[in-house]
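Re: your question about Glycosyltransferase involved in cell wall bisynthesis

S., sorry for the slow reply, the queue was backed up all week. Below is exactly what I fed in.
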Amino acid sequence: MRVGLVCAHAGPSPHADGPAVGTHQHIARVAAELAERGHDVRVYERREGTELADTAEVGGYRVERVPVGPPAPTPTAKLVPYVPEFGRWLTERWSGQWQPEVVHGHYWIGGLAAATAVRETAVPVVQTFHSLGVEQLRHLGRRYGGPGERIPLERALTRAVDIAVAQCNDEVDELTRMGLRRAAVAMVPAGVDVTQFHPDGEAAPREQRSRILSVGGLAAGHGQDDLIRAMRLVGDAELVIAGGPPAGRLADHAEARRLRELAEQHGVGEQVRIVGAVPHDQMATWYRSADVVACTPHYSSAGRVSLEAMACGVPVVGYSMGGIADAVVDEVTGRLVPPGDVRTLGVTLRRLLADNAGRFAYGHAAVDRVRCSYTWERTAGALERLYERVVGRRKPVEA
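Result:
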């Protein structure tokens, strides 16, 4: 099957309203898995700069960089006017010898470009939003920083696609509230690279006291402030926050300064350590160094951090929402607490850190759960069946 994956951003986006690093890892891994299954896969992303070639062969699939928009990193809001041009470029590209049998849009900008490109053809469109503006607005409130046109354009996109792929049950419900029929929404969670994330291997250096690890961007809505407030109830433990800019730039980072000040105000400044960005290929060592991984974002569709931690055999304490609620089985692979309930968060962390046998049991169950239900092979297989279904619907019936 010929598959076109479209993401209008170029590589991991540095912008708060653009797709996260995990989104591009997701697309790359899906493309590689589909190619390994024998499909002809091409990934289309926007070209930024001139240092990269127009096309590249990566992991059995082809990446094509589309020369649309400014040749520099660009916020999502400023990419919206280039969607028609992106769509026309794809239409022309697909008018030659190679035309996809199915197009899969990623993130809302990529989906708009994909739907624009094939609107006058019989090529079906599958869409993964990775995050929804209306959900982010509900959970983040005034801290939501997405462009104003995002939500109405996402609603319009739901009417243009054959099927939408949700990554968690909360997203299934949200997409149906946006007007999609339930039959037009498929739940396919993200996967985990279990060859990279596993319990055996090196661990990052640590102190003698217990370690709680938090992983996520240093921006509003990632929940590090809730964890810092909860540390007053935890006792003698360290909270390590990984994410944001590289360590050398943390001193000038406004959110890092705010979190440090918050820790001092609550009397836990000596217990909180912000380490900055950690390369993804080194994250497993940080997960293994932790006694507990805390996942407290105010919005999370995929629950990637919780899955990676569980694959490394580390129990998760997380907010009961989005992909975290789907991944973590309460009192089996970790603990779930009500979103925003700082007191329950602190008490739960304290009790779990004191329960060595409980953490051991949760960690073993977590590894089993990931290997059974959250591998990339399983994700690619589900998408493959989905593609076959929508292509079969669109093909004309022969006499």
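The first strand starts at residue 2 and ends at 7. Residues 13-20 have pLDDT under 50 and may be disordered.

Happy to talk it through on Thursday.
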